[in-house]
Amino acid sequence: MRKTRRKIKLTATQIIAIGFVVMILIGALLLTLPIASKSRESFGFFNALFTAASASCVTGLVVADTWTQFSGFGQVVLLLLIQIGGLGFMSIAMLISLALGKKMGLRERSVLMESVSSPSIGGAVPFMKRVLWGTLFIEGVGAVLLSLRFCPELGFWEGIWYGIFHSVSAFCNAGFDLMGRYGECSSLMNFQSEIYVNVVIMLLIIFGGIGFVVWEDVRINKLRFSKYMLHSKIMLTATAILIFIPAALLFFLEKDASMADMSLGQRIIASLFQSVTTRTAGFNTVDLASVSDGGILLMDVLMAIGAGAGSTAGGIKVTTFALVVLCVIEFCRGRSEVEVFGRRISPDQIRRAFCVASYFVGISIIGCIVILAVQPLPVKDVLFEVFSACGTVGLTTGITQSLTPISRIVIILLMYSGRMGSITVAMAVAEKKNNAKLQKPVERIITG
Length: 448
Prior knowledge:
Oligomer: single chain
Distance between the termini: 60 Å
């Protein structure tokens, strides 16, 4: 009998999914090393796995304060995981490959296109080069601006490191910080009244969250909004709406809660900051444990929405949310097609938008039920934690460190699913190349 070998062929989606798992495991092993901890004692593999997953998936949930727990080596490992996780490991692999003078084949280009949401396979490499240079420039400017604030207080070298770390973390929408020196897990609460730091961090978060495709569109068409692709028009318009309307709501919802002791100016900047960071980044300038129930609910919605497709952030994505809202509006108006900015949206895109949103809500609810089944915690806090993980945000009401091993595994899976994209994970597990040739007969059902 002849023995034949069947070569396993992975799709681009599956390669990306497996690559992120490998990156998380490598990061966990490095963070387990005694040299990664300030105490020179091993952090423990399970704790390191949670932290590596959070950094690689640019989430920001932690089981120990970053500054208190990790040495300089551990902080560098975290920063590399955040940078690679934000841009996608294929982007870094391409950079190394080009530096070594190797050419990328069609298969590598298709994986790269999937990784960064490039418009075409032919332009994937040039597009990625511009993304990398753009990222380096924006993070560099952010690092310089933040260093100017930190150097006088922390000294030159430590101030520079703080500038670099927080610039990369903010741009990649990761939410990791080194502010534990002012108080464990205090995030940016000590800087809530400093407009300079708030504005720099917010701009870095927005630039990282609007998506690389929007970058390219703005680069080509400058400020001529009418020339932009439909994706960019929806993304920029929806982003502006999702910044200012939630900020106004938080301004009034939190006046007697988390922002009760603030001046008018502090409330304005805090409301804007939380509106920006809640969808993507995970920094906070207010005490989340004192946020009102209305504020928590609003933050849950913002975390579920997330940022732009093909960006450094998670969530169902702004454009997906916009399509769902537009479809509901058109349905209520009795129209069968969705039109926006003079263009018609295809039914396939509408269907995908509803699938992504439904999948996100579904796995979030399942995750919440599992956690509540294994430990008694307030539903409000668990739901907030789950949406934060699945939206790769990193905000928490304070229950992360008290989660049981099973609950932490659930959060790790949700962070991974959120960074990869809910539908992407499902496709990576069950992707089939052959479509059914025969179609079943259509029959109407009663829906309401």
